[in-house]
Amino acid sequence: MRPLRYSINVTLDGCCHHEAGLPPDEESMRYWTTEMERADALLFGRVTYEMMESAWRKPATGTWPDWMDEWEIPFAEAIDRAKKYVVSSTLSGVDWNAELVRGDVGQAVQRLKQESGEGLWVGGVTLPLALADLGLIDEYEFLVQPVLAGHGPTLLAGLRERIQLDPVDRHEFRSGAVAQRYRPTRVTA
């Protein structure tokens, strides 16, 4: 069974809008590239899929755009080639090495988790909330940015029940950001 990891950038006040934190730098992009490469497949909701595709899909020319710095290319290549599953009831189809997931999201993700491999990676806001409520997330990873956003969507807002987490790993960046990894506490009888 492969674990489902939820990873996201978040500000100190819990904002998880993709533009609220620090701009990506070489160190954080290397970190995210490594995390992306640890996954057998990526799991996105429609909004995150469309946002990632617009930013990181390799152009038909086969050449990365001029706006992209050299140190961003390994991340772009990792996400571009990754297998993707997209949970959506509104999209009629997907491409970019992606497969559409419809129906009961809990059952679909449980089936994906039961396949062999290193793990699945989920990002975004809405889908991870649903998966957390279903108890399907095996690891939480937050790249906490030293920023107070003061507005925007907050991390796992609306979670139905409290989830106790055990710390697993911590990594500090030169920028002041801190990657923190946790696993849900498993209750033993």
UniProtKB/TrEMBL annotation:
What domain of life is recorded for the organism? Bacteria
Domain called Bacterial bifunctional deaminase-reductase C-terminal: residue spans: 6-166
What name appears for this protein in its UniProt entry? Deaminase reductase
